[in-house]
Task: inverse folding
């Protein structure tokens, strides 16, 4: 990266906030996605909207790629600077500008972690509903840029349902403000939602106004073991058919149960074919009622064993089995590929059985856990990165998994995003006309194509 | 409109489904917006997606404007063919393709009325949550095109929160499918939400997949009278500060109370400064608990009188006062201008008092009712259309009302849309850079500018 350009950036943000040393750049060559890396030419750390605007104007003038980045916990290489250029780290913009209990909203800078926002809201008796598993490290800006999901998707929806307004900088440097402090606003195309999930390819988010909810009085969780995932899925269908939309409906397949039990020593029932975590939150009497109805439904659906935690602490202990699925699996091989597909809820068991069949056929190890309530699955492959042939087979297996999800009326990504990883499959999901339309939309925001090139809209 | 073109359309849809007689065209010159009318050159009634595609291809080739139209109940002239051309009536596409109780979703053609969808869902024990006041006549396609709101906005959100997927035809004739039967899907920019609220300027919606909820077991409504709207607003703030997010929080100002009482003879308390309707739905014990808490909060906030309806029938009777605000006001003059602004909830009373001050200053009659829970107000002006000077003063007053809403961190339209009416004010709300961006997005969909020209994106 040329020295003049680095100096010009240093003039904007101060010399301490531009990094060019190869050792530092290598940190920004990767995000949480395995097998994707490309060092940027430099990393810049702005701390105001105006600095972001000046950086983007400069980069636009010079045609330099800019990749906005929060915590770098992305799982589809959306924040890997695949064309080099500048990584724009938003980690200095960490101010919680305002939490209004009156209006049930928060205004935050993009670098605030989701967990910190949730904790600050909770201290005021409020809930920030989106809860992606990465919430402790991930930033609100990154979560908005990927429209992050989480464990509460069925009942609470995903990040997009909570974004009321955004301040964002266009690649050409103009600052726009979309939406605001309003529950109803239809003045103009819905740019708030268009930027949500745009993966840093249309604009750089510099502030967000998000909706909060009253904190639920009670939260309880239960666990049910079933002989098969089909039986667990049937129980899920029956829960919903009974008019219950629970806060939590998570599953682990047989392979996950064994691996998590090895890792945690929780004494899970390893002989079971599937484990279902079910939980609800809300007024105490409703939660208690729903938990006992769900317990009965699981039993009637043939559960081997059903336990409802008597309190929040024991509920958290049960959820630990789900939350540590990924670290438990990661121990089995030094390369862990955590994938993300989504199918209509009734097709969940069918999808998992197809995944198992594909894994067997390609002779790779895939265990699957995920969100049974909203049909979002995380097939996870563990392997030895030095076994090039196995890595190759894993890629082929995942390509087939994505195509299978599409054939089952599903999608190639439920909550992780497209990034560089899924871009080659986007046409199969959306059709070529729609991919072309996305490109035209991208150009409407970013005529020079400087913002996160090689990703969505490319 | 040239004869060849009409013949070509007749070849697509059949001669019975193209109308060119001046008497028929005059019906399609207007929607529910007063003072805006322009007859189209012809009206065409397709009945399949493929017909819509062929019509749009033909219109694109010839550069003829096409204005998609549902029931024509729009209130911002969004469906008035201000540049002439073709009105594309979606009223033959009225098939409810599917209601899935398993998946809690419905697939419908755009011409289905919202009330019919809601009734069919209810018959299966499900709720279609969006409930704009126009629901009996308005179509689902039109409601999606305007991102319609309604009385349940605070608790349930607006139409956009319920659209899972769309089939739509681009102005150039390509058919795209966005989203689907999935609660989580981040494959690509969020075109589902971008089309929702795009007012027929980006694509023509030919099918929608919408999310349903379990039907609430109980629904109750109460009414509280206050000496002033400030006192009613304070009660609303206290309800929310107590962690209650009720299904209904509607208000009528003093002028509306009198007019509605004259119209209905319900025996409302005309001496009150404001009437607040509050209600909730959900499990019976929660609703009963919330209703008694809201009753107490209203009393503590100084309510003159509070009544909670003991059952659904009496709840409906109370809501009738709110639902007939518009017809009651319409009796007072042959021209009724129903407007729509939105402000942050705590600024509601301030906004109404500004509206009153503006109405006095311009010597026009404005009464205001609306959604106290989400800050969405409907100042309504009644006047004599033959009094040109009064009409002129009303326009000036509303322009000032829109600007006042913007100054109070609000917006020029909460739920009715931009259409032709608000387009001149859009730049003041969004800023000129954002208006330019909307135009570039419009061109990405509609390079020839044939779809609903003179509206959003123009």
Result:
């Amino acid at each position: 990266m040329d020295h003049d350009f680095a100096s010009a950036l240093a003039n904007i943000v101060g010399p301490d906030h531009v990094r060019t040393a190869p050792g530092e750049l290598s940190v920004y060559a990767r995000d949480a996605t395995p097998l994707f890396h490309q060092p940027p030419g430099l990393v810049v750390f702005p701390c105001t909207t105006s600095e972001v605007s000046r950086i983007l104007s400069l980069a636009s003038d010079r045609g330099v790629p800019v990749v906005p980045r929060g915590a770098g916990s992305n799982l589809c290489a959306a924040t890997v600077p695949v064309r080099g250029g500048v990584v724009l780290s938003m980690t200095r913009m960490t101010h919680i500008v305002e939490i209004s209990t009156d209006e049930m909203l928060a205004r935050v800078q993009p670098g605030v972690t989701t967990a910190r926002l949730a904790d600050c809201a909770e201290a005021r008796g409020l809930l920030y509903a989106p809860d992606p598993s990465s919430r402790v490290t991930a930033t609100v800006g990154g979560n908005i840029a990927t429209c992050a999901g989480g464990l509460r998707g069925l009942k609470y929806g995903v990040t997009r349902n909570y974004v009321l307004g955004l301040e964002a900088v266009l690649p050409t440097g103009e600052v726009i403000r979309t939406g605001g402090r309003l529950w109803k606003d239809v003045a103009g195309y819905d740019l708030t939602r268009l930027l949500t999930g745009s993966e840093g390819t249309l604009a750089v988010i510099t502030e967000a106004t998000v909706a909060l909810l009253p904190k639920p009085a009670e939260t309880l969780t239960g666990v049910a073991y079933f002989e098969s995932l089909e039986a667990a899925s049937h129980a899920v269908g029956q829960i919903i058919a009974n008019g219950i939309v629970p806060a939590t409906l998570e599953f682990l397949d047989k392979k996950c149960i064994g691996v998590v039990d090895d890792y945690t020593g929780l004494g899970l029932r390893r002989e079971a074919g599937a484990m279902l975590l079910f939980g609800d939150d809300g007024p105490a009497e409703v939660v208690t009622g729903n938990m006992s109805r769900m317990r009965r439904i699981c039993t009637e659906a043939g559960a081997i064993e059903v336990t409802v935690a008597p309190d929040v602490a024991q509920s958290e202990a049960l959820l630990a089995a789900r939350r540590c699925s990924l670290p438990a699996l990661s121990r089995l091989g030094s390369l862990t590929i955590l994938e993300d597909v989504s199918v209509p809820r009734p097709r969940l068991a069918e999808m998992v059985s197809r995944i198992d069949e594909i894994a067997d056929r390609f002779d790779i190890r895939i265990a699957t856990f995920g969100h049974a309530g909203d049909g979002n699955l995380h097939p996870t492959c563990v392997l030895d990165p030095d076994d090039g042939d196995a890595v190759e087979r894993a890629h082929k297996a995942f390509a087939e998994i994505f195509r299978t999800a599409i054939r089952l009326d599903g999608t190639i990504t439920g909550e992780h995003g497209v990034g560089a990883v899924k871009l080659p499959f986007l046409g199969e999901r959306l059709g070529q006309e729609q991919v072309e339309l996305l490109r035209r939309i991208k150009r409407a925001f970013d005529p020079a194509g400087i913002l996160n090139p090689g990703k969505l809209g490319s």
Summary: DSSP finds 16 helices and 19 strands in chain B. Chain B touches chain A through 89 residues (CB under 8 Å).
